[in-house]
Amino acid sequence: MTVRGRVEQLLDEVTPLAPDPTLIGSLRAQLANPLTVALVGRVSAGKSTLLNALVGDRVAPTDRAECTKVAALYTEGNPQRVEVVGLDGTVTEIPGTMRGDLGRKPEDIDHAVVYTPSRLLRERFRVIDTPGLSGFTDTAEIATRRVFSGDGRLPRPDVILFLLDDAAGPKADEVQFLSDAGASAQNTILVISHADLIAADNPMLKAQEIARRVWRRFPAIAGAVVAVSGLMAEAGVCGVTERETAQISRRGLLEPWELLTILDGAAPPPPGLDVDLLGRLEELVGTYAMDAGADAARQGARAYCEWLHRVSGIDELRLAIGRRFLAVGDILKARTVLAELREAAYRSARRDVFLEAIEEAETAPELHRLREVAALEALARWQPDSDLIGELNLVVASRDVRLLLSLPPDAAPPQIADAAKERATDCRTRRAFVATSAEKEALLVLEQTYQLVRRGRWTA
Ligand SMILES: Nc1nc2c(ncn2[C@@H]2O[C@H](COP(=O)(O)OP(=O)(O)OP(=O)(O)O)[C@@H](O)[C@H]2O)c(=O)[nH]1
Ligand SMILES: [Mg+2]
After folding, report:
1. Using the 8-state DSSP alphabet, how is residue 133 labeled?
2. What strand order describes the sheet that includes 81-86?
3. To test the ligand 1 pocket, which listed residue (49, 204, 229) has its Cβ within 8 A of the most ligand atoms?
4. Is 231 touching ligand 1 by the criterion CB < 6 Å?
5. Which atom of ligand 1 is nearest the CA belonging to 62?
6. Are 197 and 187 spatial neighbours (Cβ–Cβ below 8 Å)?
């Protein structure tokens, strides 16, 4: 049986025990749907711009000023439309995207669901765009926290993309938020956003250096730290016209002082240079992409868009999402569903029976991978210098038992069983010599992993 199969079986078992009859149906849907990725970070960190870049369409409104007022789940659907779900549970539907009037005050809205045609949203992951943290009023932060607290009506995110718009890395309140939201190397990527603004010279390279530094400081709350210019990615993916590209090319022929005097109005623009359009391009691609991309712009819009796309860092982010999350999507979804079920169990009139069913599922061999991940998270958080982190990381990342056991590719099943048995015995012995409960639990989980490998029941 698969991870998903075992969780579906659990959902069947607890259906009569659930406090809310719609809960089990929505958890079933969550298992069947692609992963749910939430974009979080301070207000104006570039969340909606990054969403557009990922989806490949300007579906989410963006602005210099505080912009996204309600949490919105972007999911595949045709025709494009928005379902607005009130705090009172009532649903209204409006055509179009979040750019239109939602028909209610943001304070009265729990969330919106935006249906839009997109292959990424259908096949890879759905995205929740949040209003963000630390806005002018509390509204944005309250709406953002509701996404993670379980008090709201949106599906709980499986994965967090947290945007940092400060070269200094996450501040104490951001680390606290991530910790409260259960962020770990297994479910979170930090994004150094506005990478093109990080420095005057070579910003993208400096942003990558910052990303490496931040990752070394916070290995327990992020599986990767990636530097991205969402603005460049959005423009590269959604397209820049030939007319706009030609302006960037012309602008690149001017000396910096010439450009300044023209923009100040102290000198007339040369023929063909459209100062108003340059102003709009500043908003569309940013200054760095006009300065550094002038050569690419000389080769036309297509070459320029390719350059924007390549330099923006969006492919590195997509790759990190693919590597870290998509390959283990069912495990991440199973975790989210189990966490929701545990909360539901406490509201159930038959709490003990409910919890017992969950525990039985959690100890089932099919869901052993969840215990490996949980043991790794606990160690990373409480004992980041433990030697066992390397071994658990290997176990969690392994797809092949021979590689896991350092055996040759042609090792026969009896050889695998012997090696696994030896490892299991070794874990049991080592358990007597470690002092902390996190390491004891890790060794217990590892022992069970090797026992499952020995019996041929470990599902990579
Ligand atoms: N230069 C530059 N500007 C960016 C980048 N990403 C976003 N911006 C700009 O920053 C402003 C805020 O971007 P949004 O995407 O609206 O940010 P947000 O986090 O969704 O903001 P709220 O919805 O208000 O929380 C907009 O003017 C964007 O054009 C980036 O990578 N580089
Ligand atoms: Mg926004």
Report:
1. B
2. 91-95, 81-86, 109-116, 72-76, 125-129, 35-41, 159-164, 188-192, 224-227
3. 49
4. yes
5. 16
6. no
**Dihedral, CA of residue 284, residue 64, residue 132 and residue 97, to nearest 10:** -60
| Sign of torsion over alpha carbons 386, 452, 441, 6 | positive
What kind and span of H or E run contains 224?
A: strand 224-227
Phi, psi of 234 (to 5 degrees): -60, -45
Show the tokens assigned to 388: 């066992």
Sequential DSSP letters for 21-43: HHHHHHHHHHHHSPEEEEEEEBT
Q: Is the CB of 68 under 6 A from ligand 1?
A: yes
Determine the average pLDDT of the residues in 410-439: 94
Per residue in 117-137, pLDDT (tens digit) is: 999 999 999 999 999 998 788
Cβ atoms of 76 and 127 closer than 8 Å? no
Whether the link from the prior residue into 21 is cis, omega within 30° of 0, is: no
- Encode pLDDT of 169-206 as tens digits: 899 999 999 999 999 999 999 999 999 999 999 999 99
Q: How far is the CA of 25 from the centre of ligand 2 (A)?
A: 30
| Calpha distance 187→148 (Å, rounded) | 13
Q: Please give the Cα distance from 234 to 286 (Å, whole number).
A: 11
Rounded Cα–Cα distance for residues 307 and 304 (Å): 5
Q: Which atom of ligand 1 is nearest to the CA of 69?
A: 23
Q: Which of 40, 42, 43, 44 to mutate to test the pocket of ligand 1 (most atoms within 8 A of CB)?
A: 44
The residues, any chain, with a CB within 8 Å of residue 338's CB and separated by 6 or more, are 7, 10, 358, 361, 362, 370
pLDDT higher than 70, residue 340? yes
CA distance 52 to 59: 6
Sequence ranges of the domains in the chain = 236-312, 367-454
Dihedral sign of CA atoms 390, 395, 398, 401 in order: positive
Ligand 1: does its nearest atom lie under 6 Å from the Cβ of 62? yes
Measure the CA–CA gap between 426 and 261, rounded to whole angstroms: 74
* Residues making up the chain, counted from first to last: 460
